[in-house]
Amino acid sequence: MIDLTHKIAIVTGAGRGMGKGIAEKLASLGAHVIVSDVDETTANQTVNHIKEKGGTAEANVCNVADKEQAERIVADTISQHGKLDILVNNAGINRDNLLHKMSEQDWQQVMDVNINGVFHMMHPAVVHMRDRQEGRIVNISSASWLGNVGQANYAAAKAGVVGLTKTAARELGRRNVTVNAICPGFIDTDMTRGVPDNVWDLMISKIPMGRAGSPEDVANCISFLSSDQANYITGEVINVGGGMVL
Predict the structure, then answer these.
(1) What is the rounded distance in angstroms from the CA atom of residue 11 to the CA atom of residue 23?
(2) Is 6 left (phi over 0), alpha (psi -120 to 50) or beta?
(3) First vs last C-alpha separation in the chain
(4) Where does the pLDDT of residue 174 fall: very low under 50, low under 70, confident under 90, or very high at 90 and above?
(5) How many angstroms separate the CA atoms of 186 and 195, rounded?
(6) Which secondary structure element, helix H or strand E, spans residue 148, and what is its range?
């Protein structure tokens, strides 16, 4: 049984979709979750849902692309709760297009959130976790880090997340801080539900398990990596995609 009682966790991009599922799962296992999102309304909705189920959480609006905002949320958490045990870097955006049609703006926006944002959150968190000689960091990459048509910006950023994760794991291992990456496959969220039916069917056809994943499928893996049961696992890149990537 995974027990995260008394653990303090930040989950970015937790207002909806996968982030919401991750925050709710960690809270259900006893963690106090700081629900971070650029959208205050959805962040508060996640918090309310957690509290309705008996968990504890609070909202903290943050745009991870902004270094000062990222530093503030980490500092606020440590100031108010005395520590930060778990950091889940989930916030991300996509601006898909073929490479020859991709604008500089679409490239930069994805980089600012999907890779720079991970660094912005990790930097202050790592300083704290190194000093405590304890901590868990889980970064959300994507199966697309291996390359995907129409996602040059997204794939490049998510590949960067893998490289950052492995480097941080090497640097922090002796400080008892683990750093791992999750690569979700095709997950059933509001975003994926917006694709045309033929695209949905095509994606499902590529998955040996024959279904889209759920946010809870991803959250279950993150819960394990955040727990004491995973204290000798670091630098790993774990696919949660029903076999989509083999």
Answers:
(1) 6
(2) left
(3) 29
(4) very high
(5) 12
(6) none
**Beta-carbon-side half-sphere exposure of residue 231 (alpha carbons within 13 Å):** 10
Any idea which residues carry the catalytic annotation?
Answer: 154
Task: Summarize the confidence of residues 172-194 as an average pLDDT.
Answer: 92
Q: Are 213 and 188 in contact (CB under 8 A)?
A: yes
Structural domains in the chain, sorted by start: 8-240 (3.40.50.720)
pTM score of the predicted model: 0.96
Angle at 109 between CA 124 and CA 234, to 5 degrees: 40
Confidence band for 191, pLDDT divided at 50, 70 and 90 = confident
Which element (helix H / strand E) includes 240? strand 237-240
Question: Any idea of the CA torsion for 55, 56, 59, 65, to the nearest 10 degrees?
Answer: -80
Q: CA-to-CA distance for 240 and 37, rounded, in angstroms?
A: 23
For 45-57, write each residue's pLDDT tens digit. Answer: 999 999 999 999 9
Cβ burial 5-23 (10 Å sphere, 16+ → b, else e): eebbbbbbbbbbbbbbbbb
Q: Report DSSP state, residue 183.
A: E
pLDDT one-digit tens code per residue, 48-93: 999 999 999 999 999 999 999 999 999 999 999 999 999 999 999 9
CA distances from 126 to 88, 122, 183 (A): 13, 6, 22
| DSSP sequence for 60-75 | EE--TTSHHHHHHHHH
